UniProtKB/TrEMBL annotation:
<dbReference type="InterPro" id="IPR029021">
    <property type="entry name" value="Prot-tyrosine_phosphatase-like"/>
</dbReference>
<dbReference type="InterPro" id="IPR016130">
    <property type="entry name" value="Tyr_Pase_AS"/>
</dbReference>
<keyword id="KW-0904">Protein phosphatase</keyword>
<feature type="domain" description="Tyrosine specific protein phosphatases">
    <location>
        <begin position="89"/>
        <end position="152"/>
    </location>
</feature>
<dbReference type="GO" id="GO:0004725">
    <property type="term" value="F:protein tyrosine phosphatase activity"/>
</dbReference>
<dbReference type="Pfam" id="PF00782">
    <property type="entry name" value="DSPc"/>
</dbReference>
<dbReference type="InterPro" id="IPR016278">
    <property type="entry name" value="DUSP12"/>
</dbReference>
<feature type="domain" description="Tyrosine-protein phosphatase">
    <location>
        <begin position="11"/>
        <end position="171"/>
    </location>
</feature>
<dbReference type="InterPro" id="IPR020422">
    <property type="entry name" value="TYR_PHOSPHATASE_DUAL_dom"/>
</dbReference>
<keyword id="KW-0378">Hydrolase</keyword>
<protein>
    <recommendedName>
        <fullName>protein-tyrosine-phosphatase</fullName>
        <ecNumber>3.1.3.48</ecNumber>
    </recommendedName>
</protein>
<comment type="similarity">
    <text>Belongs to the protein-tyrosine phosphatase family. Non-receptor class dual specificity subfamily.</text>
</comment>
<dbReference type="GO" id="GO:0008138">
    <property type="term" value="F:protein tyrosine/serine/threonine phosphatase activity"/>
</dbReference>
<feature type="active site" description="Phosphocysteine intermediate">
    <location>
        <position position="115"/>
    </location>
</feature>
<dbReference type="InterPro" id="IPR000340">
    <property type="entry name" value="Dual-sp_phosphatase_cat-dom"/>
</dbReference>
<dbReference type="InterPro" id="IPR000387">
    <property type="entry name" value="Tyr_Pase_dom"/>
</dbReference>
């Protein structure tokens, strides 16, 4: 149903993207007459403060086009998510819930996805849905959305997250390195900003399926240390003192190397030190926060990482970040010193 048939004009902006899927703004969410007319049963709100304040909506956008209030609120099912139109906002973790809600809404009648203006937040979520549903790239999904809603324009941060979503096969894959790094960076930013965070700690490699593939290597006589001859590959890292498995190779987060010694010039080293040969190789593994890291669970900003078995110091963590020996700044940082752990490979 197009705008002419609805007899609607600004500030109303609801557009049909696919059968049963509409994108719009806060005014559209308050227009009950039109919602009923197009058989909307579900409303996905990415600006919940406006959605809850119907009186404020009426004052801001005016009454529905009919000019009459409905005798009873229609039976809409709502999903309200607190999402800011901010480049640093974590939208990725909301996508599975949004996609499921849109699928349910389309199956039962119709769904409106809206934010305040119907441009960035709602545009990002609908783009992600088209990627998931139709197997499109982020670029093609956004182009398709703009055929229906030319004003759709995700902010740069959301575009980056859609790119990560695409790299995961248009699904959330918690094993994906790019996703892990994004989520950790997002948590670190929230932590430094004083926001409540609930870190998702990676599984302990000594528990469950990881134990059989990593910790039992010693018992099977397949564990070796040192280089990686032939087709051998690292499967985990162990405390050098007690041999407890502390991380799997999938828990290590790569980073681009920094500028080496030049990155430390601000420390005003003496000329004698500057002239010496400095190894720019990384001296630590940077990993996800792990379930066995008791000091991280205690909620401190920074501290030591101790082996949960022998209490040897393996490294340190800092939610504000730390500088790797290669010069790169890692934020937040959970580092295991290479001198304190051994590679186990098979």
């Amino acid at each position: 149903m197009d705008e002419a048939k609805l007899g609607r004009s600004p500030p109303y902006a609801m557009k049909l993207v696919r059968p049963g899927l509409y994108i719009g703004n806060a005014a559209d969410a308050a227009d009950e007459e039109t919602l009923r007319k197009v058989s909307i049963t579900h409303i996905l709100c990415l600006a919940p403060t406006l959605s809850r304040a119907s009186s404020a909506l009426a004052a801001l956008f005016g009454p529905p086009r009919s000019g009459q209030s409905s005798p009873a609120a229609p039976p809409f099912r709502r999903l309200e998510l607190s999402v800011k139109d901010d480049e640093d906002q974590n939208l990725l973790d909301h996508l599975p819930e949004c996609i499921d809600f849109i699928e349910e809404g389309r199956a039962k009648g119709g769904v409106l996805v809206h934010c305040v203006a119907g441009i960035s937040r709602s545009g990002s979520v609908v783009t992600a849905y088209l990627m998931y549903k139709e197997g499109l790239s982020a670029k093609d999904a956004l182009a398709s959305l703009r055929q229906a809603s030319p004003s759709a324009c995700p902010n740069d941060g959301f575009l980056e997250q859609l790119s990560i979503f695409e790299s995961m096969g248009n699904r959330i894959d918690e094993r994906n390195t790019a996703y892990k790094m994004f989520r950790l960076t997002s948590l670190g930013r929230a932590w430094r900003g004083g926001e409540p965070v609930s870190p998702k700690f990676a599984d302990d490699p000594n528990i469950g399926s990881r134990r059989s593939s990593a910790n039992n290597l010693l018992e099977e006589g397949e564990d070796q240390l040192g280089g990686l001859p032939g087709d051998k590959k690292v499967v985990c890292y162990r405390c050098r003192k007690c041999r407890r498995a502390v991380a799997g190779v999938e828990n290590v987060l790569p980073h681009d190397k920094g500028g080496g010694q030049s990155a430390f010039d601000w420390k005003k080293r003496s000329k004698s030190l500057d002239s010496g040969a400095i190894d720019d190789e990384c001296s630590s593994y940077f990993v996800e926060p792990m379930q066995w890291m008791n000091s991280v669970h205690e909620g401190e900003l920074e501290g030591k990482i101790l082996c949960s078995k022998c209490q040897s110091r393996l490294g340190s963590f800092n939610w504000s970040g730390t500088q790797c020996s290669c010069g790169a700044w890692i934020t937040p940082a959970f580092q295991l010193n290479k001198s304190k752990v051994d590679e186990s490979w098979t």
